[in-house]
Protein 1
Amino acid sequence: MPLLCPQCGKPTLYLETGGVMGDIYRCKNCTYIGNFVIESDDDDLSDELREARRAATGK
Ligand SMILES: [Zn+2]
């Protein structure tokens, strides 16, 4: 199951660190850093991504 960046929607995340704060992911395609990622294996990504972007960016 790919991990998708909540900002750019690309599967370019990699695990930055794991620890007491939890896993932190960083995106190679944009500036996103955080523990929130999208795990999706279905085709209905658009709605999911829109929700995730709103949660991540506050817009
Ligand atoms: Zn990104």
Note: DSSP finds one helix and five strands in the chain.
Protein 2
Amino acid sequence: MSEPVDRLPQTRKSYESPTFDRPESSPLALFRQWYDEAAEHVREPNAMTVSTLDEWGPSSRIVLLKGVDETGFMFFTDYDSSKGRQLQDDPRVAVNFPWHDMERQIRIRGLAEVAAPEDSDAYFAVRPHGSQIAASVSKQSQPVSGREQMQSEYDAALAEYADRDVPRPDHWGGFRVRVFEIEFWQGQKNRFHDRWAFCRSDGSHEPADLSQTEAWTPVRLYP
Ligand SMILES: Cc1cc2nc3c(=O)[nH]c(=O)nc-3n(C[C@H](O)[C@H](O)[C@H](O)COP(=O)(O)O)c2cc1C
């Protein structure tokens, strides 16, 4: 149990993990290893914050990771939502996995790109029918007059697609986050944590293949 909000200054959890030495594997292999470990200890390990930019500054929200490979990290959303529009205007993006139960976080910086339509079709097709309906009727991030309005639109679509497949709406699909920096953080005693940031070996900020060890140089950072 944690301390209540008015005891925040006294709230202190000590981190006691094994030390984390220079990683020898590629960023993709290390992510996959840490993910599989998180899957055993963390509730919803695929929940990640995604931060985007617009003219007023950054904004963050949680989305669910739905795939990872050497090209990057995939999530699905509404292209007309606030984040969808922001990423199409400015692809610069940050992602964070806060795996408290492992005393770990993974921080990612990169560029988002709209996923191939085939990838969005494939994932939409395996979503439950109710989620497909919700994605079809939701105008994500737009104001709505009330729950009743949403429900009546949902019910109308449910009736319309009672005995046929829901087509993937044009406004819904995936983004792939292509990575130019990925940091692995492991909590240690006395707040003297281990941090290894994989930066591009050529010093650039161009996204690269996460499985290519030589494209990346792990750099230890002060905590
Ligand atoms: C655990 C969790 C998982 C979520 N997963 C998604 C997701 O995969 N895609 C999505 O569009 N929104 C997801 N959301 C909702 C977003 O956090 C956010 O409210 C929504 O996408 C609208 O964000 P925007 O107005 O900044 O575009 C999730 C929220 C939570 C708490």
Note: Helices lie at 27-41, 82-89, 117-126, 129-137, 147-160.
Protein 3
Amino acid sequence: MQPSRLALDLGAPPEVPEEAIAAAAALLRGGWLHRYGETLGDSSDAALLEEEFAAALGARYCVGVNSCGSAMFLALLGSGVRPGDRVLMNGFTLSPVPGAIAHAGAEPVIVEVTQDLVIDLDDLARQARASGARHLLLSHMRGHIADMDRLMTLCDELGMSVIEDCAHTMGARWAGRPTGRFGRAGCFSLQSYKHVNAGEGGLLVTDDEDLAARAILASGSYMLYGQHRARPSKEVFARWKDLTPNFSLRLSSLAAAVARPQLRLLAERARVWSDRHARLAALLGAIPGIRLPHRPQQEEHVQSSIQFAAPGLDPERFRRFLAGCRARGVFLKWFGAEAAEGYTSAPRHWRYLRDARTPPHTEAILATLCDMRIPLSLPAEACGSIAAIVAEELEAAQRP
Ligand SMILES: Cc1ncc(COP(=O)(O)O)c(C=O)c1O
């Protein structure tokens, strides 16, 4: 018999392991919570986390900051974005992406996405030519990775620099290469709902020595940038140190201490998430009236959420479907909602933009798109109960 209600919190963040709790407690006892110190040297947890993350991704440099949003802002600045510039971005993402562009004083230009929830490369080419934009902030939103070979070839042809938003793709790859290693810089999040839960934090990886030095200085290193380990040479800092404002966006050593042991758990976490996602995808995909995005073979995703479309429902029935699922503990989010809700929003909600509009194809796709978090703690057996609730509530919403 199927349950009438799911007795699980789908919003539960990944558990913080004992090793991380012990590391945080040790740090608290010593008081070294700020990552720099006149007598500290280069062994702060923040410096060590950066070194470990750079090594894990095969990147030359890594800069820790207080959020992925800050990492994206600094990556844009370091790529040469100036106030008034136009920056392309895909229309399926979350508000910190246009926010990072606005933070740099630039103007987002929204590009369409495909039914499979990745940036539409034909529209990207069109919008690049029409806008003259030289920068793309590409969001691998909800873990959906575009064909990165085609995308990078296109961006090279267009002379466009790419920054990757990897808030949802830590540990994910395209054709064997980690996301964040295609563009000029990759930006990751350590916020609680991400693959590593440090509460807050961001990591920027790059092989570009000028971008790295500028990001370290702008993040608020003062003249203590020598305490970074995954950093460029002091000669590079000499070029930028008097030309770079301090925006004080530092990564706290406390967050880094909580994150470091979790980095070592990423492969195991990816295994669990992939298993739960595969089960849910098979079950939900078999429900009449539900469509899942196609995932290409080159994509090795680490899905901490699942997206599906219910294309047959008009907005009124959609609201009924969501309410029915939520009442039974299956908390679905909807990208087609009239107003922004929780973490979820769409370009038409960002009314500070000059052109706050979701482009038409993306609007149609988001109108029927549902999103569900997959907590790491989700037992495999619960996937069947979730799918049963979704199927029953969809059927109920379809009734006249
Ligand atoms: C797609 C996407 N990009 C970037 C971010 C920004 O991450 P942070 O909260 O660390 O700034 C988020 C946060 O939820 C996100 O969902």
Note: The chain has 13 helices and 13 strands.
